[in-house]
């Protein structure tokens, strides 16, 4: 049995101790925000924070995490109010969204250590891959979140992420099979 804390909750995994943390989180804990990308640590889609450090969860076994504290994207902020989440929206840094949790977790770990991180430090610390090409916007978002964390920029005025379903679609009455078909004289 392997025990550690995930998102401030103690967890005991009854899995093989060599199971990658990624699969324990996704399959056993149902924390699917941590994404499987490449499986060999290159892409960063599976990034989580372990004891304050951004770690690729596909490269670490649950045995290696014994007794440690793991934070996934689900616990960064339940209402998506973390400055980095808000800055990602403000900068339009989310393209397809698949790599977004990994970038957010890597950026959040960096900003927790150094909210004054500049472009070069961000580029060195956040080496995730974005196949869509949103990398420059992601770096700007991390810089912007750092400014917000230092209270030099207010992100509270940003709209909450997401679309209100009532604004995104309308319910249209279904056409019933019993409706009469128009005749040639009717337009």
UniProtKB/TrEMBL annotation:
Organism from which the protein derives: Croceicoccus marinus
GO molecular function, one term: metal ion binding
Keyword ATP-binding attached: no
SUPFAM superfamilies per UniProt: 2Fe-2S ferredoxin-like, CO dehydrogenase ISP C-domain like
Signal peptide: none
Name this protein carries in UniProt: Isoquinoline 1-oxidoreductase
Keyword Oxidoreductase: yes
Sequence segments annotated as region (Disordered): 156-187
Keywords: 2Fe-2S, Iron, Iron-sulfur, Metal-binding, Oxidoreductase
Pfam families: Fer2, Fer2_2
PROSITE patterns cross-referenced by the UniProt entry: 2FE2S_FER_1, 2FE2S_FER_2
Higher taxonomy: Bacteria, Pseudomonadati, Pseudomonadota, Alphaproteobacteria, Sphingomonadales
Gene3D superfamilies (UniProt xref): 3.10.20.30, [2Fe-2S]-binding domain
Residues of the 2Fe-2S ferredoxin-type domain: 1-76
